[in-house]
């Protein structure tokens, strides 16, 4: 049988009203009563009625979060970081995946809004098709975009500085002697894909090295494998390949290794994200590290400031990444790449 506030009051020897005040913390009671009620609640295993609390306080103590797919290691990492931040305030996370579909994403938003979440954190799956549903949700509850964002400026955003990350990657391979560099990324359906390609193109133009048409597919291991095959079949290989994320880079390494290439003797490969398997592939992957803990903390902080249908201009917070140099790329003269098992913190080229 469920323990009620009446049971707690009876065991504590106080009125139901006093027990309610002591447990809610909204009104003061004497220290003696507070202690008796807390002890009785603990002994009985009392759990407050979340529905009643939500009706009373007009909050549910939950934040909804939508990411394109939890199979992508980066999104798993960022979800865990957000949940750790929310736990500091006793807030629960309700997670959904849009499955890279704007239609599914819109349904997930409606589901979370129907559950009366106190706010939303979303990584929109499509820079243009996600706009209507995201802006509608932002008019109804506080909303912050994390990592990816929509084309409209109508909702706050926190993410990595993709341009700075690509600049670090290109500068690194050029310093290692590359004179031709190719980009392998995702089709330009989301903000990350567009910004990383744009950042790569500007960095290459500034450095003066040669490049070729980018290879664009998906942010997946499978696409990295296919892109590697295309490079092997397409004539002279570039000196370096910069990838849009780590999954692509790991697939590319596997494919090029099958083709008989050595890293970095024949070609340097650089990824983006620094997810767990970046250190486990062979060779360990040089990559741009996204500061996920800082991004999550900033998103949660900003969510606490945002109001539904906020008339103020949307805030955009771009956090600087860092380059972690490992063994898949040629380091600049005098530099030493990270070795497996050796912690170096954040390394910049």
TrEMBL record:
SUPFAM superfamilies: lambda repressor-like DNA-binding domains, Periplasmic binding protein-like I. It comes from the Bacteria. GO terms for molecular function: DNA-binding transcription factor activity; transcription cis-regulatory region binding. Residues 319-349 are annotated as: Disordered. SMART domains: HTH_LACI (SM00354). Coiled coil: none annotated. Residues 339-349 have a biased composition (Basic and acidic residues). InterPro entries: HTH_LacI, LacI/GalR-like_sensor, Lambda_DNA-bd_dom_sf, Peripla_BP_I. The keyword Transmembrane does not apply. The lineage of its organism: Bacteria, Bacillati, Actinomycetota, Actinomycetes, Streptosporangiales. Residues 3-57 form the HTH lacI-type domain. Keywords: DNA-binding, Transcription, Transcription regulation. This is Transcriptional regulator, LacI family.
């Amino acid at each position: 049988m469920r323990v009620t506030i009446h049971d707690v009051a009876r065991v504590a020897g106080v009125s139901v009203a006093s027990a309610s005040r002591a447990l809610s913390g909204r009104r003061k009671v004497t220290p003696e009563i507070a202690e008796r009620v807390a002890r009785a609640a603990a002994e009985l295993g009392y759990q407050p009625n979340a529905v009643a609390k939500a009706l009373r306080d007009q909050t549910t103590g939950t934040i909804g979060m939508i990411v394109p797919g939890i199979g992508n290691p980066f999104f798993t990492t960022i979800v865990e970081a957000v949940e750790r931040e929310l736990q500091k305030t006793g807030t629960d996370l309700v997670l959904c995946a849009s499955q890279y579909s704007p239609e599914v994403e819109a349904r997930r938003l409606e589901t979370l809004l129907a559950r009366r979440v106190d706010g939303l954190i979303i990584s929109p799956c499509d820079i243009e098709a996600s706009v209507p549903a995201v802006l509608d949700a932002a008019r109804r509850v506080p909303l912050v975009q994390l990592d990816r964002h929509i084309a409209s400026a109508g909702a706050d955003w926190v993410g990595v500085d993709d341009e700075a990350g690509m600049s670090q990657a290109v500068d690194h391979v050029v310093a290692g002697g590359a004179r031709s560099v190719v980009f392998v990324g995702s089709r330009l359906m989301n903000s990350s894909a567009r910004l990383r390609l744009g950042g790569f193109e500007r960095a290459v133009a500034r450095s003066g090295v040669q490049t070729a048409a980018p290879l664009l597919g998906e942010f997946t291991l499978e696409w990295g494998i296919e892109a590697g095959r295309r490079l092997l079949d397409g004539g002279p290989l570039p000196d370096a390949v910069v990838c849009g994320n780590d999954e692509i880079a790991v697939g590319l390494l596997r494919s090029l290794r099958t083709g008989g290439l050595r890293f970095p003797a024949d070609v340097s490969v650089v990824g983006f994200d620094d997810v767990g398997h970046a250190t486990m592939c062979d060779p360990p992957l040089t990559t741009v590290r996204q500061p996920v803990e800082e991004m999550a903390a900033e998103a949660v902080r900003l969510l606490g400031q945002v109001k539904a249908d906020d008339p103020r201009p949307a805030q955009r917070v771009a956090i600087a990444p860092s380059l972690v140099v490992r063994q898949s790329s040629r380091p600049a003269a005098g530099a030493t790449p990270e070795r497996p098992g050796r912690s170096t913190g954040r390394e910049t080229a």
